[in-house]
Amino acid sequence: MSLPPQTPLDAASPVPDSAAASPPPQVRPTLGEIFIAFAKISLSGFGGVLAWSRRMMVEERQWLTPEQFNETYALCSFLPGGNILNFSVVVGSRFRGPLGSVVAFAGLMGPPVLLVLAIAAIYAHYGDLPALRRMLGGVAAAAAGLMLATVAKMARPLFHNRAVVGPLMALATFVAIGLLHWPLPGVLLVVIPLSIALAWLVPTRGAG
Amino acid sequence: MKDDLGGTLLTLAGYFALLSLFAIGGGNSAVPEMHRFAVDVQHWLTEREFGDVFALAQLTPGPNLIIVTLIGYHVAGLPGGLVTTAAMCGPSAVFAFFAARASEHFRESAWYGILSRALVPVTLGLTAASAAVVATSSGYNWIAVAITLGTAVTAFFVRVHPLLAFAVAAMLGLGGLV
């Protein structure tokens, strides 16, 4: 759930590991074990599902080496959709094929969906209570603040080497989506190809 | 909505299935787009309700994009919640399944560096946009703005557990300040 101190993209940043993804894991957890592991990750996932998925996969169960974890998470953070959802699909598949993916995904999404449906039913009844509205207003304001802090932390490396391209792309995206409220697909279909082209053409040093 | 449940479910399914493939950088980066569609275009939720739903999603453990379950439920009850969740998760999950098989050593490839430099700024802009949309959904109340900025500054310098920040903010809200 909400803004982890370590954002998913932290996994995508530096820390080079030459031995990435090798050797392949010899572990082959059962479907039941996969389900329980991902359900636990999901339900303890306050303050960053990333931190919990790492603790579970690398430290507790030792199903992945730290390198394999980084490699997998880096890929998942560039795929569309929730990073941790992608992670569950990829890891589940590695252990037990398509069925492993389905089970990992079900473990990750099943429990919180049931929980949030109960919350939704309660909100449908009591959502108009002034006290509840005021509390939720406070929570939303704080959540916006946490997101701003994450943005500020992530933005720092962007300004290294007097880079121009990265900050410009970030600003353009923010203005188009956050201020002008333009539709996301249209904006991304312009911004992403442009950003990839610039990242490719502008040399690493000084590029954003 | 009850008179045309089938049509509403179809709209939810189609829209969120498309959004699933455009939600780069995780669930929160698609929040402004959900807001645009659900509040501005479809008028499914008011500004205030959207802010509430976002807050509830933050209070629920699990992936961020659980917010779509709440939006779907609000629009079309239990079927709406389930259909929306499946639509938001399905396409990207299938995509991830095949992408992982195609790219074994992704971090070592040249694409990794290029994609990283290209997509991180975009994700950053999207997250900032989410913060802006959520902050303004609760109105331009000065206390709400103060909570937002106070939380931002604190969390920037110190490691703050989200639940602690939410609890403090909820108490300030309950005190009639928001």
What's the structural blueprint in terms of helices and strands?
The complex is a heterodimer of chains A (208) and B (178).
Chain A: H1 31-43, H2 49-60, H3 66-78, H4 83-126, H5 130-155, H6 165-179, H7 184-201
Chain B: H1 5-20, H2 31-41, H3 47-59, H4 67-102, H5 110-137, H6 142-157, H7 162-177
Helix pairs in contact in B: 1-4, 6-7
Summary, kept brief:
The complex is a heterodimer of chains A (208) and B (178). With 208 residues, chain A is mainly alpha-helical.
- Tell me the overall shape of chain A: globular
* Secondary-structure-derived class of chain B: mainly alpha
Biggest sheet features of chain A: none
SSE string of chain B: HHHHHHH
Q: Tell me about the biggest sheet of chain B? A: none
Q: Please, what is the oligomeric state?
A: heterodimer
Identify the biggest protein-protein contact and residues per side.
A-B, 108 and 116 residues
Question: If you had to describe this structure to a student in words, what would you say it looks like?
Answer:
The complex is a heterodimer of chains A (208) and B (178). Chain A folds into 2 domains: 8-126, no CATH class; 143-201, no CATH class. Chain A is 68% helix and 0% strand. Chain A contains 7 helices and no strands. Chain A has helices at 31-43, 49-60, 66-78, 83-126, 130-155, 165-179, 184-201. Chain A is globular and about 50 Å long. Chain B is built from 7 helices and no strands. The mean pLDDT of chain B is 89. Chain B has a domain at 2-119. In chain B, helix 1 (5-20) packs across helix 4 and helix 6 packs antiparallel against helix 7 (162-177). Chains A and B meet through helix 3, helix 4, helix 5, helix 6 and helix 7 of A and helix 1, helix 2, helix 3, helix 4 and helix 5 of B.
